[in-house]
């Protein structure tokens, strides 16, 4: 059974009660539409590229590491999405809005003071685990080939239904969500304007109402964070990336931040528990395949993986397969 809407994105049972946040209802509707579209486009397998140490840690510990976005290979991570939203809001046609609404939006996105951008930069904690829709991508093998003499590995995880269920609360109660990364500027702009068009009517209904202003602002921030976490510069389009997103700010029982050394930096990350919800891998990561990257000794590489997997009976059906990429290490 495919999951088409995550539990965290369901609307309140009724919109007639005074406790309902109208901005939240609108933002959740926008998110549901985006997530449902992603689920329909998900390939059968998504691939997580790693080195030998990463492979051993993921299989034996059944945890995935999500890295703080500031430390990813895209130097514009998150900032790219923030800039798109800011530009969209600054060019938003105010002629159909109440005058007070237009003034309020102008203050919120004032480029000179940049109150919203400054707050996001100071306070936001977003962590992601990256996947690729392609399981034998030359650029990814190049990225991981230098980490080990034998080259890298790609871990294939099933998407129907395991990863479609991941947008729901994890067993430990920490909310995570699967995202398809957008690279097409036209698609990015459409998603951005859809968010704005969904939320602006909330504050425009009565721009003097402080509670409506607060509802609009906090849900706009939530929507911007969501949007920015799955928008990247078109230069990275070859990566065909999907990602698991964890917004630590939204977690009341925050996952502990750990650190690893990479490129001489102490890189912050969190460990995510993301088990499969169905048999035969219920309670385990939905591993289905391990692809062996190009390397000088493919026979030994395969033998090592297969004997390692033999230690885990629940992964007995995980297949190992070689790469067709003609990369010389």
Secondary-structure topology with pairs:
Elements (H helix, E strand, L loop, with lengths): L21 H20 L3 E6 L1 H10 L2 E5 L10 H12 L8 H10 L6 H9 L2 E7 L5 H8 L7 E6 H7 L11 E4 L4 H20 L5 H20 L11 E7 L10 E5 L2 E8 L14 E6 L5 H12 L9 E4 L7
Parallel strand pairs: 9-10
Antiparallel strand pairs: 1-4, 2-3, 2-8, 3-6, 4-9, 5-6, 7-8
Helix pairs in contact: 1-8, 1-9, 3-8, 3-9, 8-9
Walk me through this protein's architecture.
This protein has 10 helices and 10 strands. By secondary structure, it is of the alpha+beta class. It has one domain (27-322). The longest helix has 20 residues, at 22-41.
Question: In what range is the share of β-strand residues?
Answer: 15-25%
Biggest sheet record = 6 strands, antiparallel
What is the number of independent domains? 1
- The low-pLDDT segments are 1-18
Task: Name the helicity range.
Answer: 25-40%
Q: How many separate helices?
A: 10
Distance between the termini: 43 Å
Give, in spatial order, the strands making up the sheet with the most strands.
Answer: 5-6-3-2-8-7
The count of DSSP E runs of length 2 or more, i.e. the number of strands, is 10
Key features?
elongated; 4-stranded mixed beta sheet; 329 residues; 6-stranded antiparallel beta sheet; alpha+beta
Summarize the structure.
This protein has helices at residues 22-41, 52-61, 79-90, 99-108, 115-123, 138-145, 159-165, 185-204, 210-229, 298-309, and strands spanning 45-50, 64-68, 126-132, 153-158, 177-180, 241-247, 258-262, 265-272, 287-292, 319-322. It has a 6-stranded antiparallel β-sheet, with no helix packed on it. A 4-stranded mixed β-sheet has the order 1-4-9-10, sandwiched between helices. It contains 10 helices and 10 strands.
